[in-house]
Design a protein that fits this description.
7 strands
Length: 197
């Protein structure tokens, strides 16, 4: 790899996923405003935020490949963000009982030296079980998914919330679709398999 790789995220879960590719990388958390724009579609929203997260680190990492990602949950066609409170998390989880919900993950591979940018949006669908308030409250108390779109952590106890998963890369539920990232790297002329160490 001619330029070093940076993951624009403070998430230890995303970092653990990226480590699976056995690529050397640094990690830094970008600071951006994640408020949706008026009239912005969910796909445009995650696409924009993934790029903004990658570009936000370009001043600190001026000669790097920077990976940005962002995720949202679509419920009844509307963007569902991070709950922030246990009450909102319970409300979100009640509203998805027995439903098929779409998660969209925006992914951006950005060259901070040249400005080249490769992007995609990865959809993934989950089928939620119908659970009691006691079960949902217990899950929320243990996992504290308050900073997670849709109020769940599939990498933990959240797998109990689902009856089925549907999509090409379950890693996208954790916020970093590795199949898509490998696709973007190849588009950029980087071979992730040959770069593995």
């Amino acid at each position: 790899m001619t330029l070093p790789l940076v993951l624009a995220s403070g998430s230890r879960y995303r970092a653990a996923l990226l480590k699976q590719l056995q690529l050397e990388f640094s990690q830094a958390s970008p600071d951006i405003d994640e408020t949706p724009l008026s009239g912005e579609t969910a796909e445009d929203y995650v696409n924009r935020l993934a790029a903004e997260k990658a570009r936000a680190l370009s001043a600190v990492y001026p000669s790097h490949w920077i990976i940005g990602s962002d995720q949202t949950c679509l419920l009844d066609g509307k963007i569902t963000g991070k709950p922030g409170t246990s009450e909102k998390a319970l409300e979100q989880l009640r509203s998805v009982q027995g439903k098929r919900v779409t998660f969209l993950t925006g992914l951006c591979l950005y060259n901070s030296q040249t400005g080249a940018q490769y992007q995609m949006v990865e959809p993934f669908h989950v089928h939620f079980r119908t659970l009691t308030d006691e079960e949902l409250g217990h899950y929320i108390n243990i996992e504290q998914p308050l900073d997670c779109a849709g109020s769940f952590k599939v990498e933990g106890l959240g797998i109990n919330l689902f009856s089925a998963l549907e999509g090409r890369d379950a890693n996208s539920l954790i916020g970093l679709p590795l199949i898509g990232l490998c696709d973007l790297m190849r588009q950029a002329g980087l071979n992730p398999l040959l770069l593995a160490r």
